[in-house]
Predict the structure.
Amino acid sequence: MSNARKCLARVGPPAYACAVNGPRLCSKTGCGKPAVASCAYNYAERLAWITELRPERDPSFYDLCPDHAAGLRVMNGWTLQDHRARPATQAPLLLT
Ligand SMILES: [Zn+2]
């Protein structure tokens, strides 16, 4: 019976595994929409930049949904750069 008890003791929410393997979500508090972009800050340069969603989780980047990526603002004196190939704020022009 000690085996069963040991097994039960190990049952718990595999939160870490879920977070690593699950869908990437916006890191803004209370959001939770799927992330489409990553954002990082360089405090020394007072620079913030948005890139395409990083292929892997990177502790120095915040994942952002389209809304929060489009609405990202930086503090006074900071520069915000958008390094994405096609910013989500610009809809593709389909004029024919
Ligand atoms: Zn969001």
Notes: The chain has a mean pLDDT of 79. The beta strands are 37-42, 47-52, 62-64, 79-82. DSSP finds three helices and four strands in the chain. The radius of gyration is 19 Å.
